[in-house]
Predict the structure.
Amino acid sequence: MNLKDNLSKILIIDFGSQFTQLIARRIREFGVYSEIISHKKINSKLDKNQINGIILSGGPLNVYQSKKVKFNKKIFKWNVPILGICFGHQVISKELGGKVKKAKHREFGLVKLKRLNKSKLTVNFFTKTGINKVWMSHADEVTKLAKGFKVIAKTNTSNFSIIENKSKNYYGIQFHPEVSHTENGKTIIKNFIFYICKMKRNWSSKNQKRALIQEVKDNVGKSKVICALSGGVDSSVVAKLIHNAVGKQLTCIFVNTGLLRKNEEYQIIRIFKNKFKINLVYVNAKKLFLNKLKNVKDPEKKRKIIGYLFIKIFEKYARKIKNVKFLAQGTLYPDLIESKSVTGSQTAKIKSHHNVGGLPKKMKLKLIEPLRFLFKDEVRKLGLELKLSKKIVFRHPFPGPGLAIRMPGEITESKIKILKEADDIFISSLRNHGLYNKIWQAYAALLPVRTVGVMGDNRTYEYMCMLRAITSEDGMTADFFDFSKEFTQQVSNKIINNIKGINRVVYDITSKPPSTIELE
Ligand code: XMP
């Protein structure tokens, strides 16, 4: 029997919001199980006895597009608490007899919310002033309340920002409590699941691990799976998870592009092949990559060559393993969030992420992406649960094209060698000074300029090394890390004293935007 079958849950009905998975994630943070279902897929097969509460998500639709807003209205007869968020708030109001219209004043971004009445939903939510900053994103608004509802809070431009029907336990909020910008937003979710839905804690990273392993077993059956292992957090976690589920049916393919960090290939072989006994095909393709990248300076060309070669090599070795049916990828939810809706509800497409769907299409392999509903920190917790070392789990991100995009201009073997050493000194120093885990990502780059220096009374004419270290939440925006003079001085001395080929070290003090994290 499936672990999830017996769990009581919060059901999240998805109307295609960008934030639906964030709602689920917030609920998981409180140790409670939830399930997301597209608004189009609610049917009588759902076991309502397991459902302690329902959340209606936001979404890009308008409630008056009645043909598109499909869902089984029976949920209003189930006698369970319901919370509508943004579009969900408008759905509740409209379905129960209120009115929703195009808003006179659209509200986007942070807006001041004012308390008018008390509610179970807002216990400990409001600040002492009775005013909280909340994050809004809507162009329609509720203009008339449905019968039995009263107002709990409003803004300067909208009268019904939080509403409740106390006797039925129905709540509607126009803002997004799930996004981190909303002041005390998590308290609203907490109040709903614990005080209103009376949920007990029933979900942990151990459950998560067991449920995911079960899901992989059910999906894969007796078939074979291949996985491109890079040694990064996501592919490492996915490989270990699938290995725990189906053991020798999994083969990992690890391509050494020659653009990895110092000794990275040995670490990966040691951990995955020797320690975990995972089937691992190691492909040393250094020469091929270097040959094809010869004289290539353009960043996009570099990326294309590397991506193309990687896929070709991967396909070649994957074909050698007979009867493979599945390709495992460590795609995370933020990789998908802007590409497509995960439940199949209608979501506005914003951009296609570079990691989604990049691997072999021609091979007709089925994709399995067991981490597709998780966020990075949840993947890290899962990694620890799977007994991966902290060193792997808390590793800084490393891009697919590797050192190639940290070496503007031509790529040569001697430059790679210099860069590997410089990066190793910088990263080891961060670890030795207890700084590594305070920084989201750090690396050394080799700039394609040579400058004059003086060493031991002699003139030198060597490369410039650039150090980059940033703090960030998700890599979308970033700020440079503020090192002490003592630390930068030590690293700079160590690099110059130990590496022939570098006579100047600089530190990148730009944020993202306007810069990006990588150089190319
Ligand atoms: P940028 O340079 O765009 O990078 O600010 C944001 C984050 O993405 C990583 N990155 C990549 N990761 N394949 C990847 O798997 C890529 O092609 C790639 N390019 C950038 C980068 O290291 C940073 O963490």
About this structure: The radius of gyration is 26 Å.
